[in-house]
Amino acid sequence: MSKSVDVFDDWFFDSFKRYHKLQMFSVDKPVFSMELSCDSSVCLACEKPGENCFEVLNLELPSKLFQIENEHDSINTSRDLKIKCGTLTDNQLIDMKTLFGKSKTILSEEGVGKVSIYEMDPHKSDQMIPLVNIDSKVENAHLAVDCTTDTLIIWGKENACQTGCVFDIEKSTKTLMIKDVTNDPACTYTPHFISKNELVVQNSENGSFDLYDLTSGQHVRNINLPGKYFNIGFQIRLLVI
Question: Whole-prediction pTM value?
Answer without folding.
Answer: 0.79
